[in-house]
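Data availability (excerpt). The following record was deposited with the supplementary files.
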Amino acid sequence: MSATLHQAPQNCSAAEWQARVDLAALFRLIAHYGMSDLANGAVCARVPDQPDHYLVHPYGMFWEEARASDMVKIDASGQPVEADAPWLNDGVQNLCQWILGSRSDANFFVHGHEEEVMAVGSIKDGLLPLNQPAVYLGNITGYIEYEFEEDEAFGNHFVQCLGDNQILISRNHGYYALGETAAAAFFRAYFLRQTCSTQIKTLSMGREPHLIDPQKVARYQDQMAESEHYNYNGETEWPGLIRMLDRRGADYAS
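Predicted structure:
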């Protein structure tokens, strides 16, 4: 279920407007749950009826003030479609090319810098099988070393490391959570922070951790994937999240 569709402007297709509304909702939800980083990070979407065009935010916009009409459309090379476009974050433009340009199954992604994920990504072991969200995220998560220079060589390396993962943890830096829908991208980002937070609390007790057996982890992951009762793509939670946003005021959809 998508966010409530308000009337699309004349110069915007209904499909693009829905993507803009869903994207603005995703921004608001990340802010609501304390997962934003001032004006930094990225939340982006593909334009459904122009799959080689993407929607990004104007640099300096805070997540809690995001609106559908604020989003800026860029082309496959990362350049704004409109000549009078506001200032954009070039790192965000690059991510759209690397992630959405290489993964046709991804229509939304979140790039965040939550403290918990940065902490877990800064230890050699990375994410450990200590809890249930670690189980259902573990087999869709990869890692990449943190680099500040975003040249063509790094872009190619990023795409290679991303592979078919739905989550990519950037060592000492943050993460990227992909989704076919806004709901899926949010679900993965939300529970990545949860499992990292739980891991930090567990290890902070100074006792020997009790890891879930790797064979059980693999079996549980197969069972979850096959079961109709485990929708680890956010589709169960998304309608309720949208109702919450609407109760707080539906200006995100304007």
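Summary of structural features: The first strand starts at residue 42 and ends at 47.
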